[in-house]
Amino acid sequence: MNSEIRDLQPKEVWNKFADLNAVPRPSKKEEQVIAFMLEFGKKLNLETFKDEVGNVIIKKPATAGMESRKAVVLQSHLDMVHQKNNDTTFDFSSQGIEMFVENGWVKAKGTTLGADNGLGVAAIMAVLESNNIAHPAIEALFTIDEETGMTGAQGLKGGVLNGEILLNLDTEEDDEIDIGCAGGVDVTATRKYQEEETPERVTAYKISVKGLQGGHSGMDIHRGLGNANKIMNRLLFDGFENFGLRIAAIDGGGLRNAIPRESEATIVVEEMHHDAFALEFNQLAAVIKKEYKTTEPSLSITAEVTETPSSVMGIGVQEGITRALYTAHNGVYAMSPDMEDLVQTSNNVARVKIGEGKIKILCLTRSSVESSKIDLANALRAAFELCGCEVKFSGEYPGWKPNPESPILKVLTDKYQTLFNETPDVVACHAGLECGILGQNYPEMDMISFGPTIKGAHSPDERAHIASVEKFWKFLKEILKDIPVKG
Prior knowledge:
Elements: H1 3-6, H2 11-21, H3 31-43, E1 47-50, E2 56-60, E3 72-77, E4 99-102, E5 105-108, H4 115-129, E6 138-143, H5 151-155, E7 165-168, E8 176-181, E9 183-192, E10 195-197, E11 202-210, H6 228-243, E12 246-253, E13 263-270, H7 274-291, E14 300-305, E15 311-313, H8 315-327, E16 331-335, E17 343-355, E18 358-367, H9 370-385, E19 390-397, H10 407-420, E20 425-429, H11 435-441, E21 446-449, E22 454-455, E23 463-465, H12 466-481
Parallel strand pairs: 3-6, 3-7, 7-21, 8-20
Antiparallel strand pairs: 1-2, 2-6, 4-5, 5-23, 9-18, 9-19, 10-15, 11-13, 11-14, 12-13, 12-17, 16-17, 17-18, 22-23
Helix pairs in contact: 2-4, 6-7, 6-8
C-alpha cells in the first residue's frame, strides 16, 4: 500500500509520511499514534517521553560544530481531521489513509489526507533520524488534539522545553511565512423539544444538499464557499413560510473546523401543497445553484419522496430555530484594518443536528482580535437564546500576535530570498495555530510558522503538492544550518 508515495522525492520525508499515515490518528483518538511516536524516538536512542496530556517530546543533541547555536523546538501536531465522502466506507479509528498520486499532487481515496499536519510531523521525524543534517540541539514537540480544541498545546506546562526558537511546521502555502494567527471559541446551542405526531394527509420528502467543496473553516472562510447548513435552512425556511413545511429531522455538517459539505433533512408537507411545493423547491434550488455556479459547480440540491416519519417538531420550536439559523452569521464578519487581505473575524455554522426531541448546533468563531471574537460569539448566543436554546462557550484559545521584529523572521526571509531568488509573503493567517497558546507558558520563545503547499485541508479534497514538499524540505534543512548562536 502507498508504494508509489514512498518513491517520491524527498524520500526521507515521504517515507515517514507513509509510515505515519498507516497509523490511525483522528483527533481525540490519538492513542495509537502516540505509541508509534514513542517507539520511533526510543528506537533512535533519543530522549523520548510523553507529558501528562499526551504530547510526545523527543530531544536530539546538536550535531558536531553546532553546539553553540540556540536550541530549536520543531513542532507539529499528531492528530488529523477525519472527514470522508458519504459514499466512502472508511473507519478512521482502525484504518490507515489510502493515498495516490495525481498530476503532481498526493491525494487520499475519498477521505482527508492528513497532510495537515502529517507532513510537518514527517519532516521532523526525518530530521531526527538523519545522520547528515547539520542542526543545533532539537526538541521535537508533537502535540495532540490540535484540530478539535488544541488541548495538547494548552496542557503543555512551562519548563518542559528549553529551546529559544520554535519552528511550527503547520502553514499551507510554501511561499508564506506566518507570524500570527487567529484565536477561537466554540459556540454550542442546545435545547430539547416535544415532538408532535405527524399530521395526516402529508407527503414526506428527504431533502439533500451535497456536492459542496467544504474546506478549512479558517483558511477558506473568505472564498465564498457554500455552507450546507445555511443552504438547507434557506430551503426549509422557504417551504415553511409558503407551504407550512414541517421538520422531522436534520443532519448537516460535521466538525467545527470544516466548512459543511452535506446536509439531509426529512420533512413533510400537506398533500394539497405537493405540486406547488415541488415547483417552488425546484425553482429555489435553481436560484441557489446559479448563485454558487462559480464557487460550487458540483452543488446538488434534491427532494425525493420518502417514508412518512412518525413525528415532527412542534411548530413554535421549528419557527424559532429556523429563524435563529437564518440570523446566525456565517462566513467573514470583519476584515483586518491593519493587515491587507487578512480576515479578522469569522464564524462557521458547522453542525446542525435535529431530531428525536433534541437540537444541537455547533459553531466555531475565530478572530485575531479578542474583543471582536467575543462580540460575534455573543451575537450568535443572542440569536439562539431567543429561540429557547442554552448556549455555551468552550474550547477558547488565544490568537498569536504578530511580531514583525522577530529575529528568527529575518533568518527565514533572508534564507528564502537566497535559496529561491524571491521574497516570501510574511503574513498572519486566519487559522488557529498553536503558537499563541504555547507562547503563554513560553513567552520569551521566538516563534515562526511555515510549511509546504496543501490545498483543501479539512475536506476529502485535501492534497499535497509534491514539488512543494521538496522545496519545504530544502528550506527547513537550510534554516537549521543557519540558526543564530546563543546570546
